[in-house]
């Protein structure tokens, strides 16, 4: 099974990929994979490792959102945020699921994948890549020296009519963090965590009509991404990195 999973991953990493426009022009949409994980969860490390492998794909935006509901079992997750737990519960409510769990991956705000199921995740990503983009995003990073990135959103050429509210969210994350865990189910382990989400801020709201133009200000050098999402926890309609 491990050998088969390795073959799946090798084929997956060899797939053609796109890139996100930074110098002005249409941005190639990214498939967003949100991993809800915890340092207190003994079954999470394989999913954490899978998410780290995803960072090699420029057509995917992998994000690790650490939740706080495992903190009581002996180890407080250093990256946990109650807002991440609320986001996961919001996805569960929108998707008609009765429970939340770790590790769980949510793809483009719609489909959930259990744990580190590389084959299911690969199939789900490819299915989302094959769909036409509901929102066309243009990014002009020429102002990046001043901390400002100009963004334009409009309905995609082949997309159906959009309806609001649509939330535009700025995500800041750390590319890699290493933690020595001394208590709990993973006591004694040193683990790497990729694309650890540190902040999600709503920077605009859009009704889906006409063209939305905004300038996103980046106050530091942390990696940043923009998510365009059917509010509050619906489908992610477009996503791009900003730096």
Key terms:
four-stranded antiparallel sheet; four-stranded mixed sheet; Glutaredoxin; 4 helices; 243 residues
Question: Explain this structure to me?
Answer:
- It is a single chain.
- It contains four helices and twelve strands.
- The protein is an alpha+beta fold.
- The chain has one domain: Glutaredoxin (3-Layer(aba) Sandwich).
- The strands form three sheets. A four-stranded antiparallel beta sheet has the order 1-6-7-10, with no helix packed on it. A four-stranded mixed beta sheet has the order 3-2-4-5, sandwiched between helices.
TL;DR of this structure?
This protein has 243 residues and is an alpha+beta fold. The chain has a single domain (21-241), classed as Glutaredoxin, CATH 3.40.30.
Termini Cα gap = 38 Å
Tally the beta strands.
12
What is the H/E string? HEEHEHEEHEEEEEEE
CATH C-level class: Alpha Beta
- Characterize the biggest β-sheet: 4 strands, antiparallel
Overall mean pLDDT stands at 89
From the spread of the alpha carbons, the general shape counts as globular
The residue fraction in helices comes out at: 10-25%
DSSP summary: helix tally: 4
Strand content: 35-45%
What's the Cα radius of gyration? 18 Å
Return the domain count. Answer: 1
CATH H-level homologous superfamily name: Glutaredoxin
Could you please say which CATH topology applies here?
A: Glutaredoxin
pLDDT < 50 runs, ≥5 residues:
1-23
Which architecture does the CATH hierarchy give at level 2?
Answer: 3-Layer(aba) Sandwich
Give the strand order of the largest sheet, numbering strands 1, 2, ... along the chain: 1-6-7-10
Structural class: alpha+beta
């Amino acid at each position: 099974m491990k050998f088969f999973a390795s073959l799946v991953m090798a084929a997956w990493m060899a797939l053609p990929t796109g890139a996100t426009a930074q110098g002005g022009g249409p941005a190639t949409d990214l498939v967003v994979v949100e991993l809800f994980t915890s340092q207190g969860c003994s079954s999470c490390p394989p999913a954490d490792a899978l998410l780290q492998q995803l960072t090699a794909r420029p057509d995917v935006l992998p994000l690790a959102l650490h939740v706080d509901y495992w903190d009581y079992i002996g180890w407080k997750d250093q990256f946990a945020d109650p807002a991440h737990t609320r986001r996961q519960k919001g996805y569960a409510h929108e998707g008609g699921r009765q429970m939340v769990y770790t590790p769980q991956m949510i793809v483009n705000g719609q489909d959930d994948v259990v744990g580190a199921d590389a084959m299911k995740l690969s199939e789900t990503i490819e299915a989302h890549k094959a769909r036409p983009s509901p929102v066309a995003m243009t990014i002009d990073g020429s102002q990046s020296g001043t901390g400002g990135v100009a963004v334009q959103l409009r309905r995609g050429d082949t997309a159906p009519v959009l309806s609001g509210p649509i939330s535009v969210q700025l995500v800041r994350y750390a590319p890699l963090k290493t933690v020595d865990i001394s208590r709990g189910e993973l006591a004694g382990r040193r683990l790497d965590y990729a694309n650890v989400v540190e902040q999600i801020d709503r920077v605009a709201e859009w009704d889906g009509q006409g063209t939305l133009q905004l300038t996103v200000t980046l106050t530091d050098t942390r990696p940043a991404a923009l998510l365009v999402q059917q509010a509050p926890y619906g489908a992610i309609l477009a996503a791009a990195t900003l730096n």
